[in-house]
């Protein structure tokens, strides 16, 4: 069995301007300063809005806490007449390690379909930025198809666009759990994560299935993180609301404590 480094990812969504972002990262660094041994083998990434990336990158470069940087979205195109879009190359230049693709707020609020999500993942991987592919069922999907069918179908559609061998992270985020305060149970998250890992095994083989990290997202807090991290197929968390409070996010990062 391959060891997978846990990843705790903070999705800020459309919160914190670049000045607030600088203050926030400084506060987070302070909160984590004396705690390095409590999260030594945990990878931590923050996903600020585009306008904050440069400021946060500059801070992280000077920081000894090795926080990683990620973006919340990316264009499927390399460059050209795509007003308002941001290319994966631009993100790579800013040393972004990750980019979220297919977040439910993009799928449902901006009409992104599976093919677009797959194309975004492909563009990110081509530029050397690891896509964090988000999948998850709505409450209606859950009632109609059960928990795993839609996330598995979304994953398979994205993988159809992503070249074999490209590294990716998967985030299982039940739409009904995002921002609702009603998290899935660790057992529910594990059951879908296991089905997703089996789908990776079918599509990509044993090595990819063993090494790909699957995160749970949806109302994660410092109170419930440990239960998710105990699940064998859950390798981390994508945290929204609770990543905007430096003390709370720092407690989540130190889930082993
Ligand atoms: C998210 O935005 O990906 C998310 C999981 O949000 P929250 O933690 O607030 O539910």
What does the secondary structure layout of this molecule look like, with pairings?
Blueprint: E1 7-11, H1 18-32, E2 43-47, H2 53-61, E3 68-71, H3 88-93, E4 98-101, H4 104-109, H5 114-126, E5 130-135, H6 139-145, H7 149-161, E6 169-172, H8 186-204, H9 206-211, E7 214-217, H10 225-229, E8 236-239, H11 246-253
Parallel strand pairs: 1-2, 1-8, 2-3, 3-4, 4-5, 5-6, 6-7, 7-8
Helix pairs in contact: 1-2, 1-11, 5-7, 7-8
Bound molecules: phosphoenolpyruvate.
What does this structure look like?
This protein is α/β, with parallel strands linked by helices. The protein has one domain (7-253): Alpha-Beta Barrel (TIM Barrel). Helices cover 42% and strands 14% of the residues. It has 11 helices and 8 strands. The chain has helices at residues 18-32, 53-61, 88-93, 104-109, 114-126, 139-145, 149-161, 186-204, 206-211, 225-229, 246-253, and strands at residues 7-11, 43-47, 68-71, 98-101, 130-135, 169-172, 214-217, 236-239. An 8-stranded parallel beta barrel has the order 1-2-3-4-5-6-7-8, surrounded by 5 helices. Helix 2 (53-61) links the parallel strand 2 (43-47) and strand 3 (68-71). Residues 11, 13, 173, 178-179, 217-220, 238-242 line the site of phosphoenolpyruvate (PEP). Its main location: cytoplasm. It comes from Leucobacter iarius. Substrate binds at residues 11-13, 179, 219, 240-241. Keywords: Cytoplasm, Gluconeogenesis, Glycolysis, Isomerase. Its EC number is 5.3.1.1.
